[in-house]
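Notes from hallway chat w/ T.B., transcribed later so I don't forget. T.B. wanted the structure written out for a chain they're using in a teaching module, and asked if we could keep both sequence and structure tokens in one place. Agreed to drop them here.
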Amino acid sequence: MRRFFPIFCNFASKFNTLMKYYEIDFTLTPCTQDAQDVLSAMTGEAGCESFEETPTGLKAYVQQALYDEAALRQVVDGFPFDHIHIIYNVREAEDRDWNEQWEQEGFEPIAVNSKTDNGRSIVIHDGRHLDHLQFDDFLFAIEIDAHLAFGTGTHETTRMICQQLLQMDLQDTAVLDCGSGTGILGICALKLGARHCTSYDIDEWSTDNTRHNAVINQVDDQLTALCGDSTLLETMQERYQLVMANINRNILLEDLPRFCQVMDAGSTLILSGFYKEDVAQLVDKATELGLQLSTEQHDGNWTCLVFRKP
């Protein structure tokens, strides 16, 4: 059974109060990994915050105040796999502090390789599960203390972007990390030689967590973390040689024009947080904006796209 933290979510209030949740138990027939992944993405866009795979499908959790039965029904009726039959049951979830549970459990160290012959690899860890970890085997380590934020390296999309970064020459570049979560991508870029990283996230907890992790990894003097959405880019004067965004398809489609406005000629845009089925739509939009696709990478059904601005 695999548990995974959300990419698409509205996090609990920073005062750490327990919120009331519904548990939605989906049964998929047949139950496949691709179907589970796509369902988690679609229900995430409909307001669900965290997910747990089950032998027969998926459990999703949504704040009771944000639950939208019509949106959920639209997800099920519009599911793109015609051969998958979906039924679901909604009930009140047990009162638990889900984020506290995640923080207490942590995660095992994750090795990320460049997937090229340059031999570069890094390790991402939580500072606790360090038994038998040989740091000399890696170019560097990133310690992530995840507080209510996505981005520990456990997810395919985070790993793919880190793999792309390991293949790049980032020396003295200015980097923009859109939807920073824990700040892991910006921290990785800085450790690979970037001059400065500006990051933003709509969630204040994530912004604070990015700053916290920057301090842990000793790059806080090179990282600026802002709270807000892509409208922040409209007033930015700096131009970036690398822009990264690990967000869902709909937000990427909306934000792509703003990304392009802050990119230098010759700069790189790395996108992830979506599925193979979303590639054509994202490539069409990026091409319309003058970007050129240079790399398409997959991990299961998750996808990472790399574009260049001529």
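Follow-up for T.B.: The CA atoms of residues 113 and 121 lie 4 Å apart. Might be a good example for the class.
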